[in-house]
Specification:
The protein has about 230 residues and is an alpha/beta fold. The chain has a domain at about 45-190: Collagenase (Catalytic Domain) (3-Layer(aba) Sandwich), CATH 3.40.390. Helix 2 (about 75-85) packs across helix 4. It contains 5 helices and 6 strands, in the order E-H-E-H-E-E-E-E-H-H-H. A 6-stranded mixed β-sheet has the order 1-5-6-4-2-3. Strand 2 (about 60-65), helix 2 (about 75-85) and strand 3 (about 90-95) form a beta-alpha-beta unit.
Length: about 230
């Protein structure tokens, strides 16, 4: 199989000290006032269908926690569980790794055995991933290939890079929900969700204080989870 495109990382600048304005709190309290929500996909096929993972088996995940902040114990696991529940896709953390994140990450690696490399979630920093400079706290995205028999692209792996020093600072300030929201946002990118213009969704590029997925996020994730098993 040939690669569809180079691996992309999608920037999340959480807006650190921002507090959800009154309209966002109202949105959470009375979602019906604002409609069904907004979502977008990172990539679509020529006929308008979202590119997705193959749903024949669980999505395997490995974690590089060499630089994980002490207070971040369990944050990744909680986020994986929430994204799995929201999408309906089984997601399984299969172990730890010393693999470093990078734009040229191979989708097949001997260290993980036959098949596609697991999704990588790595605690890292700007010295490894320059895109994390300037207050960017998370980067994430999927990797796709072409199915030779159908000619259709599908996702096979992906990665999330988390800025360990920034998250450590957030946790020291008591912003655990905000730190978790960064991981949720990036994992949603890995599954195939893109940014939206609505501040009432967690996939808004600059989070205004939301700690959980909004209604549009949830609908988009559910659509990605309904992909066929090819």
């Amino acid at each position: 199989m040939s690669l569809l495109a180079v691996f992309c990382l999608f920037i999340t600048d959480t807006g650190r000290a921002l507090v959800a304005p009154a309209v966002v709190r109202l949105r959470l309290a009375a979602p019906s006032i604002f409609g069904d929500g907004e979502y977008a996909f990172l990539h679509e096929t020529a006929d308008g269908r979202p590119i997705t993972f193959n749903t024949c088996g669980p999505l395997r995940i490995v974690i590089n926690e060499a630089l994980r902040p002490i207070d971040a114990v369990g944050l990744v696991e909680e986020a994986v569980e929430e994204v799995s529940k929201a999408s309906g896709l089984p997601m399984e953390i299969v172990g730890r790794t010393d693999e470093a994140p990078g734009l040229g990450r191979p989708v097949e690696q001997a260290r993980y055995g036959p098949g596609w490399a697991p999704i990588l979630i790595a605690w890292t920093g700007p010295e490894v991933i320059p895109g994390l400079e300037g207050g960017v706290i998370g980067l994430g995205g999927p990797r796709s290939v072409i199915n030779r028999s159908t000619g259709n692209p599908y996702y096979v792996s992906g990665q999330v890079a988390l800025d360990s020093p920034d998250v450590k600072e957030m946790l020291a300030e008591g912003d655990e929900d905000e730190a978790r929201s960064v991981i949720l946002h990036e994992l949603a990118h890995v599954l195939g969700l893109g940014h939206v213009d609505s501040p009432f969704e967690l996939m808004f590029e600059r989070n205004l204080g939301l700690a959980r997925f909004g209604p549009g996020d949830l609908e988009g994730l559910a659509r990605l989870g309904r992909a066929a098993c090819d």
